[in-house]
C-alpha cells in the first residue's frame, strides 16, 4: 500500500469518528449527559466530565482530520509520483492545421481609399 492509501484510510476513520462524536452531542446542552440524569446542580457519575470529554474529543478529532488531510496532500506531491497525468502523457499530441486569420489592411483615419 502507498502512503496516500494509508492516509486516506485514516482520514475516513477519523471522519467517521468525528461524525459519531458530534451526533452524540445535543446542541441544547443535553446530549449524552442528559441520558444519565444530569443537568441539575448535582453531578453524579461524572456527567460534567462526559460533556468535557465529548467537547475535547470533537476538537481533537477535527484537528487530527485537518493534519491528516494536509499530510496526505504532501504525499501526493512527493517526488516519487509523476507530476503530469498519465492520460495526458499517453495521448499523442493532436496537430490542427488551422489557417491563420486573414487580416484586413489597416486604414488611417485621415487617408482616403480613392
UniProtKB/TrEMBL annotation:
Membrane topology recorded in Swiss-Prot or TrEMBL: Multi-pass membrane protein
Annotated segments matching region Disordered: 81-114
Organism: Gillisia limnaea (strain DSM 15749 / LMG 21470 / R-8282)
Gene Ontology cellular component terms for the protein in this record: plasma membrane
Keyword Hydrolase set for record: no
UniProt KW RNA-binding keyword: no
Entry GO MF terms: protein-transporting ATPase activity
Protein name: Protein-export membrane protein SecG
Principal subcellular localization: membrane
